[in-house]
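As the next step, I wrote out a protein sequence along with its fold in C-alpha coordinate form, included below for the reader:
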Amino acid sequence: MHWRVITVGKPSLPWAKQGAEDYLKRLQRTGRIEWVVIKEGAPEVVAAKMMAAAEGCLKVVLDEKGEAWRSLDLAKWMDQRQQEGVKRVALLIGGADGHTVGLRESADVCWSLSKLTLQHEMALIVVLEQLYRAGSILRGEPYHREG
Protein backbone atom coordinates (compact mmCIF):
# COMPACT_ATOMS: atom_id res chain seq x y z
CA MET A 1 0.00 0.00 0.00
CA HIS A 2 1.22 3.49 -0.81
CA TRP A 3 0.86 6.01 2.03
CA ARG A 4 0.70 9.75 1.48
CA VAL A 5 0.96 11.82 4.66
CA ILE A 6 -0.30 15.35 4.05
CA THR A 7 0.48 18.02 6.63
CA VAL A 8 0.10 21.75 6.96
CA GLY A 9 3.63 23.04 7.28
CA LYS A 10 6.81 21.24 8.27
CA PRO A 11 7.82 20.69 11.89
CA SER A 12 9.75 23.61 13.33
CA LEU A 13 10.64 21.91 16.60
CA PRO A 14 14.00 20.07 16.32
CA TRP A 15 12.77 16.91 18.06
CA ALA A 16 9.74 16.74 15.76
CA LYS A 17 11.91 17.11 12.64
CA GLN A 18 14.21 14.36 13.86
CA GLY A 19 11.30 12.09 14.80
CA ALA A 20 9.60 12.55 11.44
CA GLU A 21 12.84 11.85 9.56
CA ASP A 22 13.51 8.73 11.66
CA TYR A 23 10.08 7.18 11.14
CA LEU A 24 9.94 8.12 7.45
CA LYS A 25 13.27 6.36 6.96
CA ARG A 26 11.98 3.28 8.81
CA LEU A 27 8.75 3.25 6.80
CA GLN A 28 10.55 3.62 3.47
CA ARG A 29 12.40 0.37 4.16
CA THR A 30 9.10 -1.52 4.46
CA GLY A 31 6.79 0.15 1.96
CA ARG A 32 5.92 3.22 -0.02
CA ILE A 33 5.41 6.46 1.86
CA GLU A 34 5.56 10.07 0.84
CA TRP A 35 5.14 13.27 2.79
CA VAL A 36 3.36 16.21 1.18
CA VAL A 37 3.54 19.61 2.88
CA ILE A 38 0.82 22.19 2.31
CA LYS A 39 1.59 25.85 3.02
CA GLU A 40 -0.43 27.41 5.82
CA GLY A 41 -3.19 29.78 4.77
CA ALA A 42 -6.91 30.39 4.98
CA PRO A 43 -8.73 27.24 6.21
CA GLU A 44 -10.78 26.83 3.01
CA VAL A 45 -7.69 27.20 0.81
CA VAL A 46 -5.73 24.71 2.92
CA ALA A 47 -8.64 22.24 2.79
CA ALA A 48 -8.85 22.49 -1.00
CA LYS A 49 -5.09 21.94 -1.34
CA MET A 50 -5.22 18.94 1.00
CA MET A 51 -8.07 17.38 -0.96
CA ALA A 52 -6.21 17.94 -4.22
CA ALA A 53 -3.09 16.32 -2.77
CA ALA A 54 -5.20 13.35 -1.64
CA GLU A 55 -6.83 12.83 -5.06
CA GLY A 56 -7.02 9.17 -6.00
CA CYS A 57 -6.44 8.01 -2.41
CA LEU A 58 -8.64 6.69 0.35
CA LYS A 59 -8.84 9.82 2.53
CA VAL A 60 -8.22 9.51 6.27
CA VAL A 61 -8.60 12.73 8.24
CA LEU A 62 -6.86 12.88 11.60
CA ASP A 63 -9.14 14.68 14.04
CA GLU A 64 -9.97 14.38 17.75
CA LYS A 65 -13.63 13.98 16.76
CA GLY A 66 -12.84 10.79 14.85
CA GLU A 67 -12.88 7.14 15.83
CA ALA A 68 -10.18 6.03 18.27
CA TRP A 69 -8.27 2.86 17.38
CA ARG A 70 -5.80 0.71 19.25
CA SER A 71 -2.63 -0.23 17.38
CA LEU A 72 -4.05 -3.71 16.71
CA ASP A 73 -7.19 -2.10 15.26
CA LEU A 74 -5.07 -0.02 12.89
CA ALA A 75 -3.16 -3.12 11.77
CA LYS A 76 -6.45 -4.96 11.16
CA TRP A 77 -7.84 -1.94 9.26
CA MET A 78 -4.71 -1.81 7.10
CA ASP A 79 -4.92 -5.54 6.37
CA GLN A 80 -8.59 -5.25 5.42
CA ARG A 81 -7.90 -2.34 3.05
CA GLN A 82 -5.10 -4.33 1.40
CA GLN A 83 -7.43 -7.31 0.95
CA GLU A 84 -10.00 -4.97 -0.61
CA GLY A 85 -7.38 -3.85 -3.11
CA VAL A 86 -6.89 -0.32 -1.78
CA LYS A 87 -3.62 0.90 -3.31
CA ARG A 88 -3.28 4.44 -1.93
CA VAL A 89 -4.18 5.99 1.41
CA ALA A 90 -3.81 9.67 2.29
CA LEU A 91 -3.54 10.71 5.91
CA LEU A 92 -4.50 14.36 6.37
CA ILE A 93 -3.08 16.16 9.41
CA GLY A 94 -4.35 19.69 9.87
CA GLY A 95 -2.45 22.69 11.11
CA ALA A 96 -3.06 24.87 14.15
CA ASP A 97 -6.63 25.59 12.98
CA GLY A 98 -7.51 21.93 12.48
CA HIS A 99 -9.73 20.83 9.60
CA THR A 100 -12.78 22.48 8.09
CA VAL A 101 -16.14 20.78 8.51
CA GLY A 102 -16.26 20.22 4.75
CA LEU A 103 -12.92 18.44 4.71
CA ARG A 104 -13.96 16.16 7.59
CA GLU A 105 -17.25 15.38 5.84
CA SER A 106 -15.52 14.55 2.55
CA ALA A 107 -13.13 12.08 4.21
CA ASP A 108 -13.60 8.34 3.86
CA VAL A 109 -12.46 7.83 7.45
CA CYS A 110 -12.02 10.14 10.43
CA TRP A 111 -9.41 8.77 12.85
CA SER A 112 -8.66 10.14 16.30
CA LEU A 113 -5.22 9.63 17.81
CA SER A 114 -6.52 10.78 21.18
CA LYS A 115 -9.45 12.50 22.84
CA LEU A 116 -6.92 15.24 23.56
CA THR A 117 -6.20 17.88 20.96
CA LEU A 118 -2.66 17.17 19.80
CA GLN A 119 -0.34 19.82 18.47
CA HIS A 120 0.06 19.05 14.73
CA GLU A 121 3.80 18.27 14.96
CA MET A 122 3.08 15.77 17.74
CA ALA A 123 0.27 14.25 15.67
CA LEU A 124 2.67 13.73 12.74
CA ILE A 125 5.12 11.78 14.92
CA VAL A 126 2.33 9.68 16.45
CA VAL A 127 0.85 8.87 13.01
CA LEU A 128 4.21 7.83 11.55
CA GLU A 129 5.06 5.70 14.58
CA GLN A 130 1.66 4.00 14.47
CA LEU A 131 2.04 3.21 10.76
CA TYR A 132 5.40 1.65 11.55
CA ARG A 133 3.95 -0.26 14.51
CA ALA A 134 0.93 -1.55 12.57
CA GLY A 135 3.19 -2.68 9.73
CA SER A 136 5.40 -4.53 12.19
CA ILE A 137 2.31 -6.24 13.63
CA LEU A 138 1.26 -7.39 10.16
CA ARG A 139 4.77 -8.65 9.41
CA GLY A 140 4.93 -10.53 12.73
CA GLU A 141 7.91 -8.52 13.96
CA PRO A 142 8.54 -8.11 17.71
CA TYR A 143 8.30 -4.28 17.79
CA HIS A 144 4.77 -4.29 19.25
CA ARG A 145 4.23 -5.88 22.64
CA GLU A 146 0.73 -6.56 23.89
CA GLY A 147 0.61 -6.75 27.68
Q: What stands out?
A: The mean pLDDT is 94.
